[in-house]
Design a protein that fits this description.
Among the domains are: about 70 residues, no CATH class; about 55 residues, Helicase, Ruva Protein, domain 3 (Orthogonal Bundle), CATH 1.10.8.1040; about 90 residues, Roll (Chitinase A, domain 3). A hairpin with a 2-residue loop joins strand 1 and strand 2. Strands 4-3-6-5 form a 4-stranded antiparallel beta sheet, with helices on both faces. A two-stranded antiparallel ribbon has the order 1-2. By secondary structure, the chain is α+β, with helices and mostly antiparallel strands.
Amino acid sequence: MHPPNSLPQGQWELWDGIRLKNNNGSADPISSFYKQLMQLLTATPKCPKVIVSVMVVLALITPLCANAINDFSLRSQSTPAPASTKLNSPASVNGKKITTKQLDEAVNLAISNGAKNNSQLRETWLTDLIVKELILQDAQKTNLATEQNNELKIRLAAENNLVDLWFNRYLASHPVTDGMIKSQYDGAIASSKNPINVNEYELSQIVVSSKAEATKLILEINNHASFEYLAKEYSLDQSSRQTGGLIGWQLPSNLVPAASAAIVGLSNGNTTNQPISIGGNWCILKILSIRPYKLPDFEVLRLQIIKNLITQAKQQAIDNLMAPAKIIRDK
């Protein structure tokens, strides 16, 4: 940028002091403003001192303003805005985003279940979400959900999860208390003093709907048929059926009187030789092992007592639903 023609000597020096250039060497708008101002002064040689003073002040502050403007422009060009996708998506799997909301929900659920809130927890759950997304993508690609009877399995799994949530809600409003646990332990102390409980028995069972069927199975067992196989094939009790009829260690006093009387006096490996009537069904018992009964310490027995109380509470919840329900079975 060149100064205007015919400037007096003093104004030449002033012009030299206020020339400005932008980054590429071309005159910027502030320089154009001074050029016009100098041309005005040239037209009026006897310029009042106040105008000259204003020019001096402007000459001093203009470079500072220009530098600030240039610095701001450079920072704006060199500093990119943060990517919003990073804020909302901690990971992606084959282009499918895992959102911060998904991660927060998983972490918060884990914390509500007792997990410690830290960065490792978030990293663990993020890895879990990534692996799950990979599996889901592959399952979708291969149409796994529609293979064989998988649609039924998925529906049943969803129903079972809802049933578990229903029980959890019931147990939350009917919690196992310390008083209930102590009462059960006091009952165990009393049972340990019962002469019938000198021994405890590890048992397996087969439960069927008729005495005739039970009698037929006893004959097969006496002819060396596998008790475990028959339990898996015919037993109505779903929990013990899966394990070949195993129901674990039992005290005689905890069984119905007919079952208690049937097992006392039998040896290891023996099966009851007559069907036992239990709650409308018929039962066959097999003794797997016998040992002297010794009452465990409270802390040892506490977890088993809690488990038993939860089982009882679940059964009570079912009974509460069954009592007013109108259920008709087709025969």
